[in-house]
């Protein structure tokens, strides 16, 4: 009886394997990447966050000491959080607003729409590169193109990237310039809004602003919600512009010390890999809290078809 049950189970397994083997083989590269390059390193970093590890000696377990130090005895942590939150608060709304305005302009039936769409999307492809960050540093230098343009109208501009009051806003401007990705998504959302709704509103005497406020925005809220969540997460993870423009220091006076840049300094500058891992997991928690809060509050302002 047991031999018969075993043969039946083996036959069932073989049939399932023969039916699903191609799918598992196609998934194998992704599974290797997920467990070997994502989940595995993440779990290792979680362990390292409870250790003192300098990459030269074996990790030494210290419990929650790294987290206690971050919360109570690390002024650069609070400085990095302040800079990062400032960047997020200014860059994300301005980028989404500019992207929506451009998308609405392109949605008016311009000739050569494909060309304009490609041109406006190009900064999103190039904006995160080292070359663009170097170019941005040259543009906003004391003798850069921005100050040269201001001098033509009689304004003496400051050294934007070396002044602590202005340096963070040069990075905000670089982020807003990379509006192409949310613009494409906004444009797709605008194309899904039925035109007969605007025609009916026009017949009722609604102005363009009222049509935008009463029709476009409510029907576009799912797209706005998606773009807001994605762009905020990307803003929290921003690294390359601050690293290149500040020379990896986060200066002047920590005014461009992004959280990710501080994490990099601790890991590869001070060789405190355990402490850097704790910083990384705090960032994960912050992003998770923001995302959860966004989904919880979306029921009050995001309108779906139902």
From TrEMBL:
<feature type="transmembrane region" description="Helical">
    <location>
        <begin position="242"/>
        <end position="264"/>
    </location>
</feature>
<feature type="transmembrane region" description="Helical">
    <location>
        <begin position="118"/>
        <end position="136"/>
    </location>
</feature>
<dbReference type="InterPro" id="IPR051393">
    <property type="entry name" value="ABC_transporter_permease"/>
</dbReference>
<comment type="similarity">
    <text>Belongs to the binding-protein-dependent transport system permease family.</text>
</comment>
<keyword id="KW-0472">Membrane</keyword>
<keyword id="KW-0813">Transport</keyword>
<keyword id="KW-0762">Sugar transport</keyword>
<keyword id="KW-1133">Transmembrane helix</keyword>
<feature type="domain" description="ABC transmembrane type-1">
    <location>
        <begin position="81"/>
        <end position="294"/>
    </location>
</feature>
<keyword id="KW-1003">Cell membrane</keyword>
<feature type="transmembrane region" description="Helical">
    <location>
        <begin position="85"/>
        <end position="106"/>
    </location>
</feature>
<feature type="transmembrane region" description="Helical">
    <location>
        <begin position="21"/>
        <end position="50"/>
    </location>
</feature>
<protein>
    <submittedName>
        <fullName>Multiple sugar transport system permease protein</fullName>
    </submittedName>
</protein>
<feature type="transmembrane region" description="Helical">
    <location>
        <begin position="166"/>
        <end position="190"/>
    </location>
</feature>
<feature type="transmembrane region" description="Helical">
    <location>
        <begin position="211"/>
        <end position="230"/>
    </location>
</feature>
<dbReference type="Pfam" id="PF00528">
    <property type="entry name" value="BPD_transp_1"/>
</dbReference>
<dbReference type="InterPro" id="IPR000515">
    <property type="entry name" value="MetI-like"/>
</dbReference>
<keyword id="KW-0812">Transmembrane</keyword>
<feature type="transmembrane region" description="Helical">
    <location>
        <begin position="276"/>
        <end position="296"/>
    </location>
</feature>
<dbReference type="GO" id="GO:0005886">
    <property type="term" value="C:plasma membrane"/>
</dbReference>
<dbReference type="InterPro" id="IPR035906">
    <property type="entry name" value="MetI-like_sf"/>
</dbReference>
<dbReference type="GO" id="GO:0055085">
    <property type="term" value="P:transmembrane transport"/>
</dbReference>
């Amino acid at each position: 009886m047991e031999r018969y049950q075993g043969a039946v189970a083996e036959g069932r397994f073989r049939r399932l394997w023969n039916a699903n083997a191609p799918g598992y083989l196609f998934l194998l590269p992704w599974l290797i990447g997920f467990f070997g390059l994502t989940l595995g390193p993440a779990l290792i970093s979680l362990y390292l966050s409870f250790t003192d590890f300098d990459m030269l000696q074996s990790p030494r377990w210290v419990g929650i000491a790294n987290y206690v130090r971050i919360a109570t005895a690390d002024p650069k942590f609070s400085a990095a959080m302040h800079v990062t939150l400032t960047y997020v608060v200014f860059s994300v709304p301005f980028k989404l607003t500019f992207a929506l305005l451009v998308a609405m302009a392109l949605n008016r039936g311009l000739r050569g729409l494909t060309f304009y769409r490609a041109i406006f999307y190009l900064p999103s492809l190039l904006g995160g590169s080292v070359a663009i960050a170097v170019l941005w540093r040259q543009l906003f230098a004391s003798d850069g193109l921005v100050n040269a343009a201001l001098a033509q109208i009689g304004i003496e501009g400051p050294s934007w990237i070396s002044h602590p009051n202005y340096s963070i806003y040069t990075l905000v401007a670089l982020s807003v310039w990379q509006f192409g990705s949310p613009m494409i998504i906004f444009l797709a959302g605008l194309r899904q809004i039925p035109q007969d709704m605007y025609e009916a509103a026009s017949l009722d005497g609604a102005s363009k602003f009222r049509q935008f406020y009463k029709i476009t925005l409510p029907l576009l809220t799912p797209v706005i919600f998606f773009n807001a969540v994605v762009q905020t997460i990307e803003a929290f993870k921003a690294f390359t512009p601050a690293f290149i423009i500040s020379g990896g220091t986060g200066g002047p006076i920590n005014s461009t010390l992004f959280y990710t840049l501080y994490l990099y300094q601790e890991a590869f500058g001070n060789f405190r890999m355990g402490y850097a891992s704790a910083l990384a997991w705090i960032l994960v928690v912050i992003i998770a809290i923001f995302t959860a809060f966004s989904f919880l509050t979306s029921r009050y302002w995001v309108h779906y078809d139902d």
